[in-house]
């Protein structure tokens, strides 16, 4: 007994150390300074402090939940220990900073940071405060862990909701400000900066109670829906579909100009994501140069409709240029696809990356300046017109993106369950077996590249006309990584997954302006964490999850040191 | 007869050979045009070649990291370019402080050694952490999973160091002792380039010694050949893999310092392009093949340095230096298409491609 409890304490200290390193890294990355101007609860806690607090809570919670003994006293001690260790590392940072010129090396190790960490109490009092805070917060984490599961769930959901309402205050207030009826509610919930204290408490209690009750009653509600006659059920489903379509159509009106812009970006990446999803998700061909097709679509529209390049305009109608953009992108997809037909896995990834870079370099060079405008890009690209309406502003472009996305989602869904889609999935699982089953690999792969490229081309065409100009530096490798991240985090091969991925990875960072700077840091970490813990993605596709589970089971059984990937035939995804 | 022939040749082959042939023809035409025009003097060509060899040495050092990891884990360590960046970027602060205080110019040898040691240590730590945290848990996962992890890790590290040290390009201090030129007749070599070439050659020779002559090297070769059998022979596979990352990381850190000394700047993004090029070099020499990586690196460095002047200029392309990177990438694509086993060739690579 004694041995396990000591081991638990040691484990808690170790987890605390890891958490502490994470917290120090967060501090040195400058996140705390970046998030400090905004309050979660006005005058009480800033976003920067919340970040520290959440990391601390999470670390202590993990430390407690990993422990083996289940005595409440032990859990409290372990949680408190982990909390203290986390803050100890912060204290070390502060004292190092007090004596060494850390700022010369670490951009963010400024006195301002130390002030923020110690709440301006100075190093001595600050140290004491941090240690006590670590102790208390660690114990609170342990208490949360000790709550009965249903209550714990309700508490965590309530806390998360308050956090989200605070973080997304701009979104909520701007949206609500479009409707006069909501003004008193907004006034009550939000202070000048962040939530008001009363608002935060109200949300906390209301959501906590609601989610607790829901956890008791949800089964009954579901059972009642199941007991409805089939016609009623169908009616229910159709009503919900109709309501969501109505909401989609009204979104720009509800959200206003800035948020429509955000939605446009989500749409842009959603289009690309669905295209790459065909190549990577369905067919299992990892393409790192997807930005090339986006660029080709954008430049085709640019070159066809811009009067800037010193020659007669070929057409001034965006709609006329659009099919060409798509066709050129498809041709490029097939052309780039031919040489890489025989490659698999990582070589394919590198070659496509090379293609993407070659296209970007060529487009920006003086060599093709006469045709493509070189580094100055192409300006004055035509805007689309629908009848008498010219599409210029973000809310108008929203409908263009919505139309494009719905079309592309429809195509994706139909293709996925077609003969071709099944051929892709067979190829993804095992190319050699697929070939043996009579799948024509060349045609199947080229179809994937071509169809994937066409969505990219469409996306590029809309992008070009939305901006009115294209520059080579808009088409760098980061775009490919963005798109790849969103389909992987959403769930490869899963269409709802791509939508969730686009909303989470493109939409959220734009709602949180302070976050934009840490976007790629977060993407990178998210990719790694996702692959380590949930490689099938947030909204996994059924087939793919089974594939990964098979592998995981096999992997678990292999003896340590065995070389599973090499023993298997090459080309397994 | 004809039918037999048409059965053996398929359409993809024809398309691929057309692409390859036309590129080769363009290169030849361009080279002949430049050489007959006499636009560049012999001394200029010599400059370009020396620069290419130095650059190639750096690529070779980075390529060794890719090739060794690929040889053992069968994965592209995409984050190796960030291992390359992290060392010299951290050591910059040491170099800069000493450069300001004048200590650097008084004791260049001591300082350079310290900078190398620091950079190699940091790169090594990053490489080992990478293996421990990101790659080890995924050793049995399907191949796409570790590759995506590596891409994620690469981005995470890039932006982590950006947040840590700032987004600006930082100027590496110039070392006075390395500035002068060694001259003979019309030809000249800058001391920095001599240092780069000699250091790269020494490190490669050292690695070759370790791999071919020591017990550990033998264990590494055994693990690369067959992990299961190696484990049965009593080799601790895990620690050999860690050792691979240690060596690869240290070489990348050293390469990073050489790169910083040559181009005199560091930034968080500095690893991306050299990383891809070094990977090209590794593929060029046959991935998994250590001498191949060295040959591939030198070849790529020289081609990249000569290419724009040699064949692009001859084709009448304006500002050919802008297309320098495109040459390297085209070479990568061509090699992977036509000879995925590389120049020195290894059967295994062909199987994997």
Q: Determine the mean pLDDT of chain A.
A: 83
Determine the CATH topology of chain B: ABC transporter involved in vitamin B12 uptake, BtuC
**CATH architecture title of the largest domain in chain A:** Orthogonal Bundle
Helix content of chain A: over 70%
Low-confidence stretches of chain B: 347-353
Count of extended strands of chain A: 4
**Highest-level CATH class of the largest domain in chain A:** Mainly Alpha
The helicity of chain B comes to over 70%
Q: What's the main sheet of chain A like?
A: 2 strands, antiparallel
Task: Provide the domain count of chain A.
Answer: 2
Strand content of chain A: under 5%
Determine Rg of chain B (CA atoms, Å).
22 Å
- What's the shape of chain A? globular
User: What's the multimeric state?
Assistant: heterodimer
Calculate the terminal CA-CA distance of chain A, rounded to whole Å.
Answer: 46 Å
N/C terminus separation of chain B: 32 Å
Low-confidence stretches of chain A: 555-573
Instruction: Give the biggest sheet of chain B.
Output: 2 strands, antiparallel
CATH class of chain B: Mainly Alpha
Question: What report would you give on this structure?
Answer:
The complex is a heterodimer of chains A (573) and B (353). By secondary structure, chain A is mostly helical. Chain A folds into two domains: 146 residues; 308 residues, ABC transporter involved in vitamin B12 uptake, BtuC (Orthogonal Bundle), CATH 1.10.3470. In chain A, strand 3 and strand 4 form a beta hairpin. Chain A is globular and about 75 Å long. With 353 residues, chain B is mainly alpha-helical. Chain B has one domain: ABC transporter involved in vitamin B12 uptake, BtuC (Orthogonal Bundle). Chain B is built from 15 helices and four strands. A two-stranded antiparallel sheet of chain B has the order 1-4. A two-stranded antiparallel sheet of chain B has the order 2-3. In chain B, 54% of the residues are buried. Chains A and B meet through helix 14, helix 20, helix 22, helix 23 and helix 24 of A and helix 2, helix 7, helix 10, helix 12 and helix 14 of B.
């Amino acid at each position: 007994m004694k041995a396990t409890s000591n081991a638990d304490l040691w484990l808690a200290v170790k987890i605390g150390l890891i958490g502490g390193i994470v917290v120090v890294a967060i501090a040195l990355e400058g996140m705390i300074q970046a998030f400090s101007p905004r309050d979660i609860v006005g005058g009480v806690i800033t976003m920067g402090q919340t970040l520290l607090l959440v990391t601390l809570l999470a670390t202590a919670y993990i430390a407690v939940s990993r422990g083996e003994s289940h005595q409440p006293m032990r859990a409290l001690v372990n949680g408190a220990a982990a909390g203290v260790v986390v803050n100890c590392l912060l204290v070390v940072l502060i004292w190092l900073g007090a004596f060494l010129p850390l700022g010369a090396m670490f951009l963010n190790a400024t006195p301002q940071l130390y002030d923020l960490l110690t709440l301006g109490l100075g190093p001595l009092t600050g140290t004491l405060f941090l240690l006590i805070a670590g102790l208390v917060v660690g114990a609170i984490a342990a208490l949360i862990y000790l709550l009965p599961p249903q209550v714990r769930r309700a508490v965590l959901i309530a806390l998360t909701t308050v956090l989200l309402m605070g973080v997304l205050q701009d979104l909520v207030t701007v949206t609500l400000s479009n409707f006069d009826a909501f003004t008193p509610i907004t006034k009550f919930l939000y202070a000048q900066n962040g939530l008001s204290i009363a608002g935060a408490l109200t949300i906390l209690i209301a959501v906590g109670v609601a989610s607790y009750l829901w956890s008791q009653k949800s089964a009954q509600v579901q059972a009642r829906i199941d007991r409805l006659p089939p016609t009623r059920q169908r009616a229910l489903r159709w009503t919900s579909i109709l309501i969501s379509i109505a909401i989609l159509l009204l979104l720009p009106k509800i959200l206003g100009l800035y948020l429509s812009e955000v939605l446009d970006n989500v749409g842009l990446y959603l289009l690309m994501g669905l295209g790459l999803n065909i190549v990577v998700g369905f067919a299992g061909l990892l393409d790192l140069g997807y930005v090339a097709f986006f660029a080709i679509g954008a430049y085709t529209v640019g070159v066809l409709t811009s009067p800037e390049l010193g020659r007669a305009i070929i057409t001034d109608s965006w709609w006329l240029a659009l099919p060409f953009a798509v066709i050129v992108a498809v041709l490029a997809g097939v052309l780039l696809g031919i040489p890489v037909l025989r490659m698999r896995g990582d070589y394919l990834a590198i070659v496509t990356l090379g293609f993407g870079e070659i296209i970007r370099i060529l487009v920006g060079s003086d060599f093709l300046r006469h045709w493509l405008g070189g580094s100055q890009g192409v300006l004055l690209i035509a805007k689309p017109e629908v009848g008498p309406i010219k599409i210029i502003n973000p809310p108008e472009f929203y409908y263009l993106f919505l139309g494009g996305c719905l079309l592309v989602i429809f195509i994706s869904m139909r293709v996925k369950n077609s003969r071709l889609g099944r051929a892709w999935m067979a190829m993804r699982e095992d190319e050699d077996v697929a070939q043996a089953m009579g799948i024509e690999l060349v045609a199947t792969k080229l179809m994937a590249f071509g169809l994937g490229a066409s969505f990219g081309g469409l996306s590029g065409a809309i992008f070009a006309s939305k901006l009115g100009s294209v520059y080579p530096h808009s088409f760098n490798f980061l775009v490919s990584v963005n798109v790849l991240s969103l389909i992987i985090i959403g769930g490869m091969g899963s269409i709802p997954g791509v939508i969730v991925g686009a909303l989470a990875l493109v939409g959220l960072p734009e709602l949180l302006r302070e976050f934009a700077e840490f976007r790629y840091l977060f993407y990178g970490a998210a990719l790694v964490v996702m692959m380590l813990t949930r490689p099938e993605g947030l909204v996994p596709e059924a087939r793919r999850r089974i594939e990964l589970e098979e592998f995981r089971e096999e992997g678990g059984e292999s003896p340590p040191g065995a070389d599973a990937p090499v023993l298997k035939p090459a080309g397994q995804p | 007869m004809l039918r037999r022939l048409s059965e053996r040749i398929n359409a993809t082959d024809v398309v691929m050979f057309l692409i390859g042939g036309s590129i080769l023809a363009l290169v030849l035409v361009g080279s002949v045009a430049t050489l007959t025009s006499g636009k560049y003097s012999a001394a200029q060509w010599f400059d370009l070649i020396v620069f290419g060899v130095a650059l190639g040495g750096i690529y070779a050092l980075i390529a060794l990291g890719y090739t060794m990891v690929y040889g053992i884990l069968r994965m592209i360590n995409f984050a190796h370019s960030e291992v390359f960046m992290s060392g010299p970027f951290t050591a910059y602060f040491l170099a800069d402080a000493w450069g300001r205080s004048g200590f650097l110019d008084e004791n260049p040898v001591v300082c350079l050694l310290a900078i190398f040691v620091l950079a190699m240590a940091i790169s090594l730590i990053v490489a080992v952490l990478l293996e421990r945290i990101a790659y080890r848990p995924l050793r049995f996962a399907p191949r796409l999973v570790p590759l995506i992890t590596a891409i994620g890790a690469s981005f995470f590290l890039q932006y982590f160091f950006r947040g840590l040290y700032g987004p600006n390009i930082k100027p590496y201090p110039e070392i006075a002792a390395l500035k002068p030129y060694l001259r003979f007749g019309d030809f000249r070599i800058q001391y920095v380039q001599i240092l780069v070439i000699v250091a790269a050659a020494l490190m490669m020779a050292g690695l070759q010694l370790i791999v071919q002559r020591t017990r550990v090297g033998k264990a590494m070769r055994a693990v690369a050949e067959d992990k299961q059998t190696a484990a049965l022979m009593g080799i601790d596979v895990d620690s050999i893999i860690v050792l691979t990352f240690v060596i690869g990381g240290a070489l990348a850190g050293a390469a990073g310092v050489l790169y910083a000394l040559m181009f005199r700047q560091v930034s968080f993004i500095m690893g991306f392009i050299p990383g891809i090029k070094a990977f090209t070099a590794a593929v060029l020499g046959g991935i998994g093949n250590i001498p191949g990586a060295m040959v591939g690196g030198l070849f790529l460095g020289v081609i990249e340095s000569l290419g724009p002047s040699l064949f692009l200029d001859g084709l009448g392309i304006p500002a050919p230096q802008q297309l320098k990177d495109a040459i390297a990438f085209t070479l990568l694509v061509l090699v992977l298409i036509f000879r995925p086993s590389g120049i020195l060739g290894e059967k295994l690579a062909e199987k994997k491609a």
